[in-house]
Amino acid sequence: MKPAKKPFxxxxxxxxxxxxxxxxxxxxxxxxVNGREIATLIGSPHDLRFLVAGFxxxxxxxxxxxxxxxxxxxxxxxxxNVRIKGEVPERLKxxxxxxxxxxxxxxMPQVDGDARQPAASPPVKPSEIFTLMDDLAxxxxxxxxxxxxxxxxxxxxxxxxxYAEDLGRHNTLDRIAGEALFRGIDLAGTVLAxxxxxxxxxxxxxxxxxxxxxxxxxxxxxxxxxxxxxSGIALVGYVRGGKFTVYSHAEAIEQYPDAxxxxxxxxxxxxxxxxxxxxxxxxxxKMGDTPLIERVYRTLAPLFRDIVIVTxxxxxxxxxxxxxxxxxxxxxxxxxxxxxxxLNSTTERALVVACDMPSLNAELVRRLCGIKGEWDAxxxxxxxxxxxxxxxxxxxxxxxxxxxxxxxxxxxxxxLFDRIKTRKxxxxxxxxxxxxxxxxxxxxxxxxxxEIRRVPESAGSVSGAAAR
Length: 468
Description:
3 domains; seven-stranded mixed β-sheet; Ubiquitin-like (UB roll); Spore Coat Polysaccharide Biosynthesis Protein SpsA, Chain A; 22 strands; Cytidine Deaminase, domain 2; single chain; alpha/beta; eight-stranded mixed β-sheet
């Protein structure tokens, strides 16, 4: 089955929403002349024979078609193999491209694994992006008065650190890198704002500098998006009018910037396993037009700075702008999901919920996270007197017992509570919260799904703003 196309995200009024669309294609073409590799041409993927012939003509290798003895372009392998009548000079003296000229690269950019962004980096506030882009525009006097001049700036926490301008957009980043070197400025974790289109060379250079987010007033190329995906860099385009489009690592952008966050807790959603009783992936079942797991995410997003989905099929949840992590012990049930959740939490505590709880109550979530004490777990009890282990707060301190249960082959989280310090939140303590009962309702069978679809869209769920 062909995986669904990865969506981009539109940022508007503090919220990221999936956005269908496409970006400009960027195609690398290895050029061989008389059996010798000359360069890698990077350009649009159409009429490649014209690109090759024109490049060789303008570089002085040929003057007419009669100078070609063989001319072959293979798009499948990204190679152009040409034989010409003249000899290729033994020593070539290339002029490095400005990025706005011939577009030559003698090697394709590679992602250095050591330069990738740490998963625990705090999210970037949209206001920081807008501020840096405004500062870039104010600094770019030559761009406004003369035209044709590109500009770039790096900043941290919305404060401009360095600015540069040049004829070529890639040169602006080279200038920033050089100035940072002379001035002893560490660019790791900074935001890069640029006036030009983002291509692979820009991303490769930004990766080497440790830049965590690239923003532009225009769009990136498709290869730049892929390279940012690999390197952990968030990529933002069309920054204008209080809006922007996120092409890569949307989880690096803070949503609901004015929401009151729950400090010291990570929000975890367990995407579930085989869903045998349902017969299909219940996380993707819809209430109205919204998948169940997205409803869960939208309730948690205003509450937590970091949200993680535990899943072994991350491509299925690409439409949700948050981190995804895999089970370390797949096939071991919810206890394995809890194990991965605690290991990947960016905080000492984590709220762990199931993907099929579409009516999560934000006020209840805040109440559970606010309970004080040296507890390994804070677990609510429902109206029937049963514990709700997938609507509970867990501390890293219980990891040892979780791992022992996994070693013993015990898949039930309920076995954990007798081995750790558990704070049971009785029904009497939470029953006064409006709609609290619906917060525990989940979907395991077609009958339960049919019943929950009859519930009004707003029932049982309290917004983050209303719960403050």
